[in-house]
């Protein structure tokens, strides 16, 4: 998926501590109302994979007084019983004709996915029994 990157002209529309910057890495999206599928387990595993692959990560949490869209993640997680996380790269002007994203973020996502397939099993096994 994608994530709403902080636009310099509209920085006040983002939660103060969670403003995804373009060219700063992959974004983990979380929402207290479960509009995204991210939970503590999926976040910890993804962060461990990213750390092993030295992939930069950022957080996105919608501002408290703002509405939030959703993804298919919560539906897939509930209906299929699979562990899920909502991640993406930051972009400006989502759903417009001028969406903009950074190539370094796309590269970071590629590195994260490559590391995920290479090391997820061993990282997941290290968390079992905790």
UniProtKB/TrEMBL annotation:
Catalytic activity: Release of an N-terminal aspartate or glutamate from a peptide, with a preference for aspartate
InterPro entries cross-referenced by the UniProt entry: Peptidase_M18
Chain positions covered by the region annotation Disordered: 1-22
The keyword Protein biosynthesis is annotated on this UniProt entry: no
Annotated Pfam families: Peptidase_M18
Bias type Basic and acidic residues, positions: 1-15
GO biological process per UniProt: proteolysis
GO molecular function terms listed in the Swiss-Prot or TrEMBL record: aminopeptidase activity; zinc ion binding
Keywords: Aminopeptidase, Hydrolase, Protease
Domain of life according to the entry: Eukaryota
Keyword Signal among UniProt keywords: no
EC number(s) per entry: 3.4.11.21
Protein name: aspartyl aminopeptidase
């Amino acid at each position: 998926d994608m994530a709403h990157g902080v636009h310099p002209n509209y920085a006040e529309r983002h939660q103060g501590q969670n403003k995804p910057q373009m060219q700063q890495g992959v974004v983990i999206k979380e929402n207290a109302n479960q509009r995204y599928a991210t939970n503590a387990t999926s976040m910890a595993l993804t962060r461990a994979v990213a750390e092993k692959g030295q992939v930069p990560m950022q957080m996105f949490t919608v501002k408290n007084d703002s509405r939030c869209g959703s993804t298919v993640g919560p539906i897939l997680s509930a209906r299929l019983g699979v562990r899920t996380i909502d991640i993406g790269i930051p972009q400006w002007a989502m759903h417009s004709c001028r969406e903009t994203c950074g190539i370094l973020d796309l590269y970071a996502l590629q590195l994260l996915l490559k590391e995920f397939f290479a090391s997820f099993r061993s990282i997941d096994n290290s968390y079992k029994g905790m």
